[in-house]
Known about the structure:
- By secondary structure, the chain is an alpha+beta fold.
- The chain has one domain: Phosphatidylinositol 3-kinase Catalytic Subunit, Chain A, domain 1 (Ubiquitin-like (UB roll)), CATH 3.10.20.
- About 20% of the residues lie in helices and about 25% in strands.
- The chain has two helices and five strands.
- It has a five-stranded mixed sheet, covered by helices on one side.
- Strand 3 and strand 4 form a beta hairpin.
- The longest helix is centred in the C-terminal third of the chain and has 14 residues.
- It is elongated, with a radius of gyration of 20 Å.
Amino acid sequence: MADFDLIPVEVAYALPHKQKIIALLVEPGTTALAAVKRSKINEHFPGLDISAAKMGIFGQSLGAKGLDAAEKYVLHAGDRVEIYRPLASDPKEARRKRAEKADSNKPLND
């Protein structure tokens, strides 16, 4: 396959103190997961488990809202595959705790 048949894509991952975006040229028909593996981004982030990581394209989670999962999603020219970190805490639980704390700080009506 000639270089002019390849499409440009990016693979991105970020930690609070470090981020990396790797530009790649891939063959048409390449999946998001295949591009992530080809990027070898996990070599820059020890402990990153690509097979278990959630991924998305420009903030849209793969495998949700009608998008194929990373192993099936076929990339388009200009796509950026984002690898998401696990959440440090459950957002619903954190919101519930904040609401409880706010309620406990309210003065009681006499």
